[in-house]
Write a structure and sequence with these properties.
Length: 326
Amino acid sequence: MRLLVTGGAGFIGSHYVRTLLGGGFGEERDPHTRVTVLDLLTYAGNRAGLPARHPRMDFVRGDVCDLPLLLALLPGHDAVLHFAAESHVDRSIAPDTAPEFVRTNVLGTQTLLDACLRTGVARVVHVSTDEVYGSIGRGAWTEDQPVAPRSPYAASKAAADLFALACHHTHGLDVTVTRGCNTYGPYQHPEKLVPCFVTRLLQGRELPLYGDGGNVREWLHVDDHCRAVHRVLHHGRAGEIYHVGGGTPRTNRALTGELLRLCGADWSSVRRVPDRKGHDRRYALDATKIRTELGHAPHTAFDRGLADTVAWYRDHTDWWKEAAYR
Ligand code: NAD
């Protein structure tokens, strides 16, 4: 199999590529899979998360909005895993960086789908997020819930999802959408909550906690997210959406408490800051479909995953300092 992975130098995409090349998914056909990573290396992309060289990996620095590049690159590939995106909600709210969300997430996805159609790529997995649904007071969303995004990031991802599903409906392209919850693990850019707090604690700095800290997110280890995407790639049905849940909801306050404990700090390190504009209160995914249909469930216990993640940032100071300040 020949696979093109967009955004493969980012947090989740690079974990996917490392795991695949290392034989970590255990699929019989994986030892023969060749990967082309296509990544623009924005501030969020980092070549250091991928092998410098690998006999089954090619790295191309390029833009998912670049149709001529995609038309040149895609022939011969059997499938595309589409991770590339602008992914940080705060940047989607800031006027300077907001337009890039429409360009990469919406136009980039549409361009990629178009290029797949033109070059005969057989299969696309579009990686998306629980944030497309908005906020939920109680219960959990199932895959038939209509999207109702409330942040510019979520709006751009919801638009991309709709283009992906419409491409299946209109053109018959074999596209599947995954919607994952908040993901944590090694190699995540220090702008995101878990690495932001851990790296600040490692430097003896204060933690800026939004609002009352009562916002609830479901947490998923990056390895479980990637195993789910891999399962969907090989076994998911065309035109379907699959939730990738973590089953471990935490308020931001509770998560902060766990990070403080793991880093040997206390609540005097926490400073309450004004809430993010339009901050969604609670996300919750019903992940029954991927479990019953594809036999996927997360493996990594949250306590162990979080402790391992803190240890990784403690041991990789050079990586996160370089990522944060370039
Ligand atoms: P990330 O920001 O760490 O990585 C994104 C990657 O895309 C970077 O390597 C960046 O250089 C690349 N990129 C950006 N614009 C590009 C462009 N125009 N052309 C080519 N490459 C470009 O993001 P992530 O956390 O790894 O998320 C990957 C995907 O998973 C995204 O689609 C995101 O919406 C989705 N997702 C993330 C989470 C999470 O908690 N991190 C949860 C659910 C879904």
